[in-house]
Amino acid sequence: MDFLVRIAENRIQAALERGELRSPALEGKPLRFDSHTFVPDDLRLAYKLLKDAGFLPPEMELRKEIVTLRELLAAATDGEERLHLAREVNRRVLRLNLMFKRAIRGEEVQVAFRSSMGTKSRFS
User: Fold this and answer.
1) 118 pLDDT band (50/70/90 cuts)?
2) Whether 41 contacts 57, CB under 8 Å
3) What's the Cα-to-Cα distance from 78 to each of 25, 68, 74, 115, 116, rounded to whole Å?
4) What are 92-112's pLDDT values in tens digits?
5) Which residues are 33's β-sheet partners?
6) Per-residue pLDDT for 84 more than 80?
7) Where is 4: in which H helix or E strand?
8) What are the DSSP calls for 33-77, one per residue?
9) At what angle do helices 79-100 and 58-75 cross, to 10 degrees?
10) Which residue of 22, 82, 87, 114 is 20 to 30 Å from 39, comparing CA positions?
């Protein structure tokens, strides 16, 4: 695979040197992507209709809930409320990971929680 990457890099570098990849209209400006840039052509209309109607895919709705709950958890001061919110975050993270049938990793790890009593609850 390294060989193919080197060939591609060499060809890109040669094209840059010849000026083939220059676009005066775009030079120095950030690239703008619309919300459907990376959606396959055959799904764009369906995605646009769902977006215009206010619907989100289930995994995106779940991610929004996780973000909201984490913000509430960060702001909560009551120990019982913090424990409840940490459990809710963990349930939703687990559900999200089960949707994709993959291991918990990265940003979607479950919340470790320390209550005001000093005990630690890792998973609910």
Assistant:
1) very low
2) no
3) 55, 17, 11, 9, 8
4) 999 988 887 754 455 555 555
5) none
6) yes
7) helix 2-18
8) --TTTTS-HHHHHHHHHHHHTT---HHHHHHHHHHHHHHHHHH--
9) 160
10) 22
Using one digit for the tens of pLDDT, what is the confidence trace for 10-44?
999 998 898 888 877 777 777 776 666 777 788 88
Q: Give me the pLDDT at residue 116, please.
A: 44
Q: How far apart are CA 10 and CA 5, in angstroms?
A: 9
Q: Which residue reads 């289930």 in tokens?
A: 58
The candidate with the shortest Cα–Cα distance to 36, out of 28, 25, 46, 27, is 46
Identity at 49, one-letter amino acid code: L
Q: For residues 77 and 85, is the Cβ–Cβ distance under 8 A? A: no
Give CA separation, 38 vs 3, 47, 58, 71, 84, in Å.
Answer: 27, 11, 19, 29, 37
